[in-house]
Amino acid sequence: MKILNNTQHSVFNLFLLIVVLHISACSDWFDDDEDDAGTDNSLTSSTTCYAPHLATGIFVPVVELRGPTFGNAFAIANYNANGYPVITYGPRFFEEPKLIQKFIELHECAHLSQLTSDEILANCFALQGMRNLGLTNEQENQIAIWHYSMTNIAPQYGGTGENFWNMTLACAG
After folding, report:
1. What contacts 22, CB < 8 A, 6 or more positions away?
2. Considering the entire predicted model, what is its pTM?
3. Pairwise CA distance, residues 106 & 23, whole Å
4. How far are the Cα atoms of 56, 62, 83, 109, 147 from residue 125, in angstroms, in the given order?
5. pLDDT (tens digit, 9 = 90+) per residue, 100-118?
6. Cα 15 from chain centroid (whole Å)
7. Are strands 85-89 and 75-79 parallel, antiparallel or unpaired?
8. Helix (H, G, I), strand (E, B) or coil at 89
9. CATH assignment of 6-29+40-172?
């Protein structure tokens, strides 16, 4: 189990506060319905991700784009040439139910807000954030099933979706 140091804990609390403030007004994403998969391709999100600008360190809204991603990725988090944080959502992202889309959004946001390339840590922050916002056991099970459906994924994700999810649970507690 990963234990967060004081700096990570403070940044995580800021991450949660920002997410809570932006989700609280639009929390319909917990009312997930499988029929919602792929029906709304807009990038208007009930969450707004904030991450530090690379040059200034000031937290700024993350630019969210629709576009191609590398390989078969759902989304990619990186920084543009001007130092602004960017999440690019690929076509597969829009095929997923709202609950999974929100998990992916928080996962990618964690990469940027925590300045980490660690996939397990990003998943950990996403799960902890969703739990703090009222994720039910049934919804968490839906996310687990989604992870378990992934086979033969890259080593940085644990090699299988089952490993990825188990390492996420070990981190998130």
Report:
1. 46, 47, 48
2. 0.78
3. 11
4. 24, 17, 23, 9, 16
5. 999 999 999 999 999 999 9
6. 12
7. antiparallel
8. strand
9. 3.30.2010.10
